[in-house]
Each structure stands twice: as structure tokens, then as C-alpha cells.
Write a structure and sequence with these properties.
72 residues, alpha+beta, GMP Synthetase, Chain A, domain 3, 51% helix, 29% strand
Length: 72
């Protein structure tokens, strides 16, 4: 599943990079995806919304087995 998640993140990454941010996959454990938001995304006050409404929604759409995406 980690490879599927990484592939899905690669599709999302350009959108984050366009705003000066980035995302790194840390781990996938029991359907919970752990990521690290970097650059502008790491310090942005809207990062929680980006994580839940953007990244998590997209990943769940592509990989239904995902339960949650959390920042570490």
C-alpha cells in the first residue's frame, strides 16, 4: 500500500510546490498515512485544512483503504 500512496502523493506534490510547499511520505500503518508537510506548507496556518480537505480527500479517493492522513 505504501507504493500506492507514494504514487498518489506524486500527483498532489506539484500543487503544493506551486505555493512553495512540499509533502513527504513518512509511513503507512494500518490505513493511517503519516506525512510531513514541508516548506511553506509546514508553517502555513491553513496547513490543517490543506491536509484534510486536499491531501486526505485525494488519497482516500484513489485508495479507499486509507482511514486517515496525519501530519507528523
Amino acid at each position: 500500500m505504501k507504493e500506492k500512496v507514494q504514487a498518489a502523493i506524486e500527483k498532489i506534490r506539484p500543487l503544493l510546490q506551486r505555493d512553495g510547499g512540499d509533502i513527504q511520505l513518512v509511513d503507512v500503518v494500518d490505513g493511517i498515512v503519516k506525512v510531513k508537510l514541508q516548506g511553506a506548507c509546514g508553517s502555513c496556518p491553513m496547513s490543517a485544512m490543506t491536509l484534510k480537505m486536499g491531501v486526505e480527500r485525494q488519497l482516500k479517493q484513489e485508495i479507499p483503504d486509507i482511514k486517515e492522513v496525519v501530519a507528523v
